[in-house]
Write a structure and sequence with these properties.
This protein has twelve helices and nine strands. It is 41% helix and 17% strand. The chain is α/β, with parallel strands linked by helices and 320 residues long. It starts with 5 loop residues before the first strand and ends with a helix. α8 packs antiparallel against α9 and α8 crosses α12.
């Protein structure tokens, strides 16, 4: 009996340098019943030409090009809506998939809506950096609070069921589509983590996060500011979703940290709130004993980073 169709959705933009290696790794998957949907977001290099030429060799590849640039959130939203498969995998344009990636994700998704896995990091020459996305940390006790200020679910690692789309589309207009997917799946307890490295994830200067950090200006593009802005944006969307269920007590405390100035008493209260919920809020960090000095230091550095970002932004935008 043939296994169900998996739709692989890839969005491209000026990705000619690494594109063919990623395409090769997808068509060579051990899970053979796939379709590959690729949407180009108005590339100015040879990306779309390469896609058209590559698609001539494989009947299961469908290639599209947007009439105007819509950005990665809307581009992936469009790709997901075109998927015909019972399952959908998301692909970056510059990674390299391990041959058994789709087979492993399909095998372990079970009754969940979404499964995500680990990745090994490679550089611009395909060389392993010795790092990976996640260390040896268990995610068995995750709930939605575990993804409020840290995005665990990176899009390039996931496989999702098509039935999940009705819960996540349309994506919020700002922020990160994969962060939103992870939050919704965790909110419904329908997410599972597979602790296997199934992707070689490329880290290079043209990645989305690096473009944000290296963009125009100096101060406003520090990593602290990028982290603050992305987290605060997501928190607002999460808050609106939780409000419908009257479940906003926990997230309101976090919102107060990101949304305005805190007096001395509130700063102390916030420190203890973050400290007490350390394991819940930072699941990828090392498990630390309650009175651990390293736990105290981590919470202090986290609050300092948020405060620094707020200060930088308040200088450039006094109405913050």
């Amino acid at each position: 009996m043939e296994k169900p169709l998996i739709s692989v959705v890839m969005c491209t933009y000026n990705g000619e340098k690494y594109l063919i290696k990623q395409l090769d790794s997808i068509v060579k998957q051990t899970y053979s019943n796939i379709e590959l949907i690729i949407i180009d977001d108005c590339s100015s290099d040879l990306t779309f030409k390469l896609l058209e030429e590559y698609a001539l060799s494989y009947h299961f590849i469908r290639v599209y090009q947007n009439s105007s640039n819509v950005g990665f959130n809307k581009n992936f939203e469009k790709g997901l809506s075109l998927a015909k498969g019972e399952f959908i995998a998301i692909s970056d344009q510059d990674d390299i998939w391990y041959p058994e990636k789709l087979a492993k994700l399909y095998e372990h998704i079970g009754e969940n809506w979404l499964i995500f896995s680990n990745s090994a990091l490679i550089d611009e020459t395909d060389a392993l950096t010795g790092r990976r996305l996640f260390g040896k940390i268990g995610f068995s006790d995750l709930n939605y609070q575990s993804i409020l200020i840290y995005n665990l679910v990176t899009g390039h690692t996931v496989l999702l069921k098509k039935e999940f789309l009705k819960y996540i589309l349309p994506f919020p207009s700002d922020g990160y589509y994969d962060w939103w997917m992870g939050f919704i799946a965790l909110r419904h307890r329908r997410l599972v983590y597979l602790d296997q490295i199934l992707t070689a994830y490329r880290v290079h200067h043209r990645s989305v996060i690096q473009q944000q950090v290296r963009g125009p200006g100096i101060e406003n593009n520090s990593l602290a500011v990028v982290n603050y802005q992305s987290t605060y944006t997501q928190l607002k969307y999460f808050y609106n979703h939780l409000q419908a269920d009257h479940d906003t007590v926990f997230i309101t405390r976090l919102m107060s940290l990101y949304s305005g100035d805190l007096n001395s008493l509130k700063k102390i209260s916030m420190f203890f709130f973050i400290f007490l919920n350390y394991h819940q809020l930072f699941p990828v960090q090392k498990r630390r004993k309650f009175f651990s000095l390293s736990r105290l230091k981590f919470v202090h550095e986290y609050l300092k980073e948020v405060s620094t970002a707020k200060h930088i932004l308040s200088i450039s935008n006094p109405v913050l």
